[in-house]
Design brief:
Number of helices: 10
Structural class: alpha+beta
Distance between the termini: 21 Å
Strand order of the largest sheet: 16-13-17-18-12-19-20-21
Number of strands: 21
Strand content: 25-35%
Radius of gyration: 20 Å
Largest sheet: 8 strands, mixed
Amino acid sequence: MIDSLPASGKACAPAQSILPLLPPVLRTAVSLLPAAVLGGAEELRIREGRPVEVVYGGGQYGFVSQDGHLAVQAEGACTATKEDCRQLLELLTRHSLYSFEEELKRGFITVEGGHRVGLSGRTVLEDSKVRMIRDVSGFNIRIAREVQGCGRPVLPRIVDEREKTVHHTLVISPPGHGKTTLIRDLARMISAGDWLLPDFGGGKKVGIVDERSEVAACVRGVPRFEVGPRTDVMDGCPKAEGMIMMIRSMSPEVLVVDEIGRPEDARAIHEAVHAGIRVIATAHGASREDALQRPVLRELAEAGVFRRFVTLRGRGNTIRVESLSREHMLHQEGRGL
């Protein structure tokens, strides 16, 4: 058991990379934010007819004024107009709504750098199913960040020392608390052979199935985030299909996949396990008990697939690593994932 660990990892300032996506008026206001706010920005929320909001520094928030000041109250803040929202959607879809029809149906767009933009507005139904979102009036730009070294407290707790690899591991947290950031760094370390244990062997072949282009932030198939020298990425592919493709074509030793939860995901994970491939996956939930209320995750757990459960709390400031036989509590001080 480890009671306290210093914060590890170095973070970049990824919020700068979203500025070209913003309409001119909003771009100017956001670019004038204090460096500490812009550097720690986690979400930028833009709603038609309402003030622009930034979430930063582990859950603090403020409304953005035209001159880059922050205020708790909305009065005097920069307000997004209908034209701002139209321009923003045009920039996000590269002036081609048709080519982003699938993303509009799912309610989010992933842009270069791994940033995910959630959308809200009026839905268009077809056969009682959502075909797309039109009249988009709300945007939540979730800012992706690379924190190399954030996996160092976790990796030694999920290794299988007998097999010289990792245990099948499920990483659990609410949205925005660092799951993707953590598994990206675990992939990097496993691929590089940075096991933090003496005489543990070299790196493993890692396969990342990156349906939303958030883990590796690929541009034309090439990762922009550091995911390790022995890592292959299946970008923009549905998770279940991507896992099967990886198993058949790239022979990974460790498979990394984000946000599982559908029956087809479970079937693909069983295929990987039967092929001798170790799996690191993530799922939404406040705790292991909460996540296992979902039938697909409960079935995988009852089948004994996952041997380690990693729960992130307080935006990665507290990490719980549980196994079937014992429990480790890891506390990170400072800014979370």
